Amino acid sequence: MTNIYRMLTFLTLLTSLNCYSKVDLIPDLVPKHAADLILHNGTIYTVNEEQPWAQAVAIKDGEIVYVGDNAGVKDWLSKTTKQQDLRGKMLLPGFIDSHAHPVMGGAYVRSLSLDSFAKPKRWLAQIKTYAQKNPEQKILFGYGFLASAFGTQGPTSKMLDEVVADRAVYLMDEGFHGAWANSKAMQLLGINKASKDPVPGFSYYKRDKHGIPSGYLLEGTATDAIDKLGIITAKSVALGTSDVIKIMNSYGITAVFDAGASDVGDLQLEVLEKISKQKQMTIRMVGSHMIGSVDAIVDAISKTKHKRATTKHEMYHINMLKIMNDGTIEGKTAGMFEDYQGEPGNKGETVFSQTQMNLLIAQAHQENIDVHIHALGERAITETLNAIELVRRNPSHRNRTNRYTICHIQVMTDNDIKRFSELDVIAQSTPLWASYDEFGKEFISDDQFNRYFRFNSLKQAGVKMSFGSDYPATGAGTLGMSPIFNMEIGHTRQTPQQKNAPIQPGKHERLDIATLIKGYTLDGAYQLHMEDQIGSIEVGKKADFVLLDSNLFKVDKYDIHQVKVLQTILDGKTVYLNQAD
Ligand SMILES: [Zn+2]
Question: pTM value?
Answer without folding.
Answer: 0.86
